[in-house]
Amino acid sequence: MKKKRVVELGLAVTMMASLVSGCSSNKKDDKTVSNAKAVEATVTEIDFWYSGGKTAVGVFGDIVEDFNASQSRYHINAVTQADYTETYEKLQAGIAGKNAPDMALLDVDKARNLSNKNLVADLRTFIESDSEYKAEDYLEVFFNQGYDKDGKLFAFPAYGTTQVMYYNIAAFAEAGINAEDIKTWQDLEAAAAKMARADGSFYGWEPMWGSGNMVDAALSNGASLFSEDGKTVTINSTEWVEVFECFRRWIHEDKTMKINYGGQGWEYWYKTIDDVLQNKAGGYTGSSGDQADLDFSIVAAMEQPGFGSNPSAPAASALQLVMLDSSSDAEKQGVYEFMKFFTNAKNQAKWSMATGYVAVNSNTSEDADFKKYVEENPQALVPLQQASHGSIIPEDPTGGKILDALTIAADKVEIEGISAQEALDEAQETAQAALDNVK
User: Fold this and answer.
1) Could you read off the pLDDT of 127-172 as tens digits, one per residue?
2) Which domain does 68 fall in, by range?
3) Whether pTM exceeds 0.85
4) DSSP labels for 64-78?
5) Regarding beta strands 41-50 and 6-9, do their DSSP bridges make them parallel or antiparallel, or are they unpaired?
6) Are 226 and 232 in contact (CB under 8 A)?
7) What is the CATH number of the domain that holds 101?
8) Which of 53, 97, 172, 276 gets the most CB atoms within 10 Å of its CB?
């Protein structure tokens, strides 16, 4: 069994009172003992594992401290990890060794995998008994990602993220490009061609390395991962091939766009950002969370466009808080109280203003501080506006093998310049085999 972590307060006072009681039997001393016993209290210690960039970790830590100071029943012990993958790997080891935390921050796939193994608690029990809970306080696009097909609420959304576009204001102005006129990826293609220099000293646009940009564009082209009955993977359909082939051409033939890849950790990510800030590129597609690292006197933000005649529908993903089922009842209640605290409108406003990530509380836009902030920083509203019409990536029943196949295909197209049809046909074969093994 996992060791219970309950700190007994007032123990020394109680022991002293017992000594006093043993030395005297008068009524005054009896009253002293009674008062000393009343001082006894317990604080439930809650272990929490999470990760994030430097800014995000700092803000998370501040909110944890605020929670600890706001009440006396629970104390959160927050421990940072390198990234979401490390959190998940250590979590699995901790569960096996019966030394898991009570709460963790994970992405959706990892949280769902734990739920499928019955390792995280069903949060419906807590919200159904909470008279203050209101479903309308949360954005459905993020909250609903915590439900499985059987209706279990396996996770609570901590914050949302979606990939938006950041453009170099001066470069757009010099080329006579209005961001408002970019309604499709084809419009962006034309703008990139207008800004790019033949000698490679300036690129029109830099998509972020990985499958994310192309998946977003494919979703905005009407693509889907599965057939309607869920039995067939469809990642080599015309909608997917068209998008992947456009990216291949823009990068390898037209050379109006560029991919930074490789390096240590997030090196490629910050190289991409630096290219735009240092006037080497017209813009890039990156995380809403990049806003903490950007200089908005140099760049501005806009939503991702549609593809062809299809409307914009990029992914909007939740980062989730999970409650480990191995925790005690007291620890679970403390975890739920923190989930509520972190996602109230005030704290979501604080979080969103500092990090750029999307608030999951629908009342955040009414927070006075947030209102004032977005008046001065209109880019803060762009991720929220995009998330309102974003797509939810469906569950990968293979435990991530289908999405991995897409990532491999993206690398072949973006880095190696292999044709989209060839790369996606290979991905389709791998993904379908994985799906067939599940069924």
Assistant:
1) 999 999 999 999 999 999 999 999 999 999 999 999 999 999 999 9
2) 40-161+319-387
3) no
4) HHHHHHH-SSEEEEE
5) antiparallel
6) yes
7) 3.40.190.10
8) 276
